[in-house]
Input
Amino acid sequence: MIELSGTNASAIAERFKALGEPMRLLLLEALRRGECSVGELAERTGGGQANVSKHLQVLLQQGYVDRRKEGTTSWYRISDPQVFRMCELVCGGLEQELDRKRKLLRRRK
Amino acid sequence: MIELSGTNASAIAERFKALGEPMRLLLLEALRRGECSVGELAERTGGGQANVSKHLQVLLQQGYVDRRKEGTTSWYRISDPQVFRMCELVCGGLEQELDRKRKLLRRRK
DNA sequence: TTCTTATATTACTAGGTAGTTGTACTTACT
DNA sequence: AGTAAGTACAACTACCTAGTAATATAAGAA
Output
């Protein structure tokens, strides 16, 4: 059972860091509907082909997505659906945080 | 209700990024037992005072921790306990990922 | 084979960030 | 007042990374 401690803090941080990039989050969101090719993902996210491919390697390396090759095209899909549960938690925290900051601003007026 | 989309992908990524650093994870883990001063945290994590203080500002800014000043010392504590739920999810995914990679290595022998 | 398509990789640049050192600031104590 | 303790901040360095452009690789089509 892996837990947060000095020995594996780096490995855990790597997994968080992989999600700490807007383009990679957009790629995951695009893949939520189903399998996509690199070209489709580049079109949907508005990113360049090389950049999208590089970000996909990061997500692949961390096991958030999986890949299937067919001819010259690579089909990517979500491999760990828990990633969306994590996004929900972060969104919830973000919402609370925005509320808190709004109240602080109101107090300062 | 905040969701993952183009407009707020950056804000969500910022919150993930704040957790994507080993020292900050160690600080959260140290604070799990209860309130700590900066000096105590520096001692427990083995980090320098200035560096610990800087990382704490990041966690504070994102609302993961809260601060209370008493005399010259600052007492930090966990503000959003959900952060540990996220660590559990990441640890679970990490475990699955390690299993998967072990199997791949075995297959290549 | 030659050309085309789709993806991966390399080299490069600009911006960001962790860690350290030194210092300023604030509070308490004498 | 002066001193000490605890923290925050600024400046600096070394490293990392997102994005881009060019190229390499691989599979199919003509």
